[in-house]
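Good morning C.,

I know you're traveling, so I'll keep this short. The sequence:
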Amino acid sequence: MGSQAGLYTALLVSFGWILSVCFHEFGHAVVAYLGGDTSVKDKGYLTLNPLKYIDPNTSITLPIVFLLLGGIALPGAAVYIQTDRLRSPLWRSAVSLAGPLATLLFAVLLLIPFWFGIDQKSWLWLALAFLAQLEISAFLLNLIPIPSFDGFGILEPWLPEQVRTQLEPLRRYGTLLLFGLLWFYAPANRAFWGTVDLIGVNLGLPIELAEAGYVLFREWSTPLLLGTVVIVAIARQLITPHKVAFEAGSRLLQQGKLEKAIAQYDKAVNKKPDFYEALAVRSYLLQTVGRYKDAESSYTQAIALREDEFGLYVNRGIISALLNHRTEALADFDKALSLQPDSPEIYTQRGCAYLEWKAYEAAIADFNQALAIDPDYVYAFNHRGLARASQGDRIEALQDISHALELEPGYAEAYLNRGQIRLELGAQESARLDLTNAVQLFKQMRNKDILALEQERQAQSLLEKLTA
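The tokens, ready to paste straight into the viewer:
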């Protein structure tokens, strides 16, 4: 059995690690919110509450097992970002980068006391030094460009579709492959930890204290590992049923099994009708799979719990517009604008509703207002192009949609729209290239909603007619 100092060190490092995971995921969430994915607020991600991010198995058990086996700080949580709501590829990269930067900031905060010359060998300073070293290693680890890590997420929006397709199978096994490389290939291990120490020294980390902290931490490795497994097992039995269903739904969502995820969120809501997080995610998934009436009802339940969440009104407005409930849709968009008057997303979505109803002038006015707020709002350019094409202004429409593609080269719907317009203008070769790009990009999408599926079929059908 280890020393008392070793026990204190192990507990402090373990709890500090859990807090740092929350800090990391909060970084992702806040940048996603600023970039246009307001759903992260509805899901409760704009907090430092561990329960919003952490799953007992993937967030506690596995990371601590990796930590105890090899001293490697395995990331242990995730927030679900709707990347299609982010304004541009630059925002998608920024969201991925935000997590590692938050981890680095956490390490810097831990190191502040050492900047004032602390060199005592108390267990507290050894534990803080070791935890800071772990945070630096997590920062570096997350920047490695392997699928499932943030480093890949930074690069992914800029990679050719073919490259992303080839790398996609690695997403499921990226963590294990990297851990195996660092564990079994000594040169990789030395290079990794050498870089960690180099960053640490430049930030003021006393390496000798961090190493002594690791020795203390290891004293309690076996008891801590066994204790963690037992505690997690007990917690899983005592945890409330609605939370168990919610966690099961989240795992299925990450696997892309949307209908099964919805069933689990249904269970969570049935167990606890005021479970807002489950209602918010279920509503969006029902919308994604095209169950609009169910989604409309689910959003209404969520709004009853959070009347000031403008994103709920926007999404219910989108659904009401698709169901041709015009009065209800406009009322929801107006309510959203009263809560968030400078949101380009709301003006764009209301413009899309007008576009659906063939009220082109009103649609263009809303798209113009969105672009007045954010001159680079990609989706406003794309849909204003559609509205102009519907009015017969195909040249201006092409300019709008082409500008949208300059801002976001991976925008599948924009390629489809431009391909259709070029086809109408008789530019068959250019249309064929656009439709080919559209089909390839649609195929790359994960968790496609029913509208994206319809657009993919439309692009495929037009391309087949061109190549026949």
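Safe travels,
E.
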